[in-house]
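Quick sanity check, tRNA 5-hydroxyuridine methyltransferase:
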Amino acid sequence: MDNYKTYLASFVKERDTLIVEIEQYAKEHHVPIMDNEGIDLFISLLRIQNPERILEIGSAIGYSAIRIAGALPKASIVTIERDTDRYLKAVDYITRSGFEQRIAIIEADALLTDSAEIFDKTYDALFIDAAKGQYKRFFEKYASSLKAGGVIYCDNMFMHGIVLLEDKDIPRRNRTMIRNLKEFTEWVMNNPEYETSLLPVGDGLLIAVKK
C-alpha cells in the first residue's frame, strides 16, 4: 500500500501556498479538515456532478469551501459555521483566496438557524461535515433544500476506525456520538428516497443521491 501511495504522490502537482498554509494551521491548532485522499475524491465527484449551488454544514476554517471553489469555477457555495473563532479565521482565508464572491459564510448553529440566506435557495449538493452525532438531524433539516437528483455527501463516516469497535471498547465520552453515527448510517443506507453508497476512502465518505 505504501508503494501505491508513493506512486500516486509522484503525480501530485505543486500545491497552492494558501492551501498549504491552511493545512498547516489546521494541524497546529487541531482543527479537523478533510485529509488529502478524501478531499481529492470528493472534489473529483463534484467535478463529475458539476453542481451550481452547494450548501456546506460545518465550515471550520474554510478549507473545503476554498478547495471546492478552486476546482469548480462556476459553483457558488453557502457554508455554515457556529464556532466564532473558526468562522473569523474562515472569513480571513476566504477573502485571501479571492473566492469571497462565490463563498457565502454564515455564522450560525446549523440545527437552529432559519436564515433566509440559506433556505431561500435550493441546492444541487449538500456537504455535511459538522458534529458527527447530529448527522441525521442535519440530513433531515436540510434535505428538503436539495433538488431531485441532488447529492448529499457526508464525511468522517468511519471516525478513524472507532465505528468498528464494540461499544465497550469505545471511550465513554464518544459512545453516544458513535451510536448516533452508526444509527444514521443504517438509516440512510436503507432510506428508499436515496441511492446511497459508503466509500472506504479517507475517513469514510457517504454519498446519497436524492431520487
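Posting the structure with no commentary besides this: The domain at 2-210 is CATH 3.40.50.150 (Rossmann fold).
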